[in-house]
Amino acid sequence: MSDLELHKYLPKLPEEALQEFTEWCVVEQSRAAGIEFVPDRTKLEKLIPNEYIWQIIDQFMKVKADPIKAGLVSAMAGQEADSHNLIGSAVMVDFVALYVKYLIPENGNTPEEAKKLIVEAGLQQYEKLSELADKYNVQF
Questions:
Q1: For residues 21-51, b (16+ Cβ closer than 10 Å) or e, as one string?
Q2: Residue 107's pLDDT band (boundaries 50, 70, 90)?
Q3: What is the pLDDT of residue 1?
Q4: Do 125 and 94 contact (CB within 8 A), yes or no?
Q5: pTM above 0.85, yes or no
Q6: Any residues with CB less than 8 A from the CB of 61 and at least 6 apart, and which?
Q7: Residue 108 and residue 12: Cα distance in Å, rounded?
Q8: Rounded distance, CA 113 to CA 131, Å?
Q9: Nearest-5° Cα angle at 37, 48 to 15
Q10: Cα dist from 115 to 20, 31, 34, 104, whole Å
């Protein structure tokens, strides 16, 4: 389902870039899925990037607009992320990026529209990863 295979790029990025990407996914991109997530910054203060990533994802996963859809999407994202065989922060970042991407088609009225929205979300994620790669001098 992941047309751009973003998971291949995640291990190449430093933890700081993964932290920024994760925050962008859960705070900014999730708005397209109708989720207004505001992290509890007091729980994120003074955390190293790895811990920050895990904490912000934990907070985000507790916000569920539609529990049935969130459960189904979580299972899909989890299964796909598991198949990518990543480790450390990259596996959690992969999961949350897939989760947000698959939540977005709430506005798609047909399977074709939903697929188009998923592809667009994947492209936005790739653009953000590319921007962060440039910022951290990482070549894809």
A1: bbbbbbbebbebbebebebeeeebeeeebee
A2: low
A3: 39
A4: no
A5: yes
A6: 74, 96, 99
A7: 33
A8: 27
A9: 25
A10: 26, 18, 17, 10
Residue 65 · residue 34 · CB < 8 Å: yes
3-state secondary structure (DSSP) of residue 70: helix
What is the rounded CA–CA span in Å between residue 83 and residue 67? 24
Altogether, the residues listed in the chain come to a count of 140
Q: Is the separation of the CB atoms in 22 and 57 below 8 Å?
A: yes
3-state DSSP assignment of residue 100? helix
Residue 7: C-alpha distances to residues 64, 82, 109, 115 (Å): 24, 11, 28, 19
Please say whether the beta carbons of 53 and 60 come within 8 A: no
| Sole residue written with tokens 């790029």 | 9
Distance CA 51, CA 68 (A): 28
Please report which confidence band the pLDDT of residue 28 belongs to, taking 50, 70 and 90 as the band edges.
Answer: very high
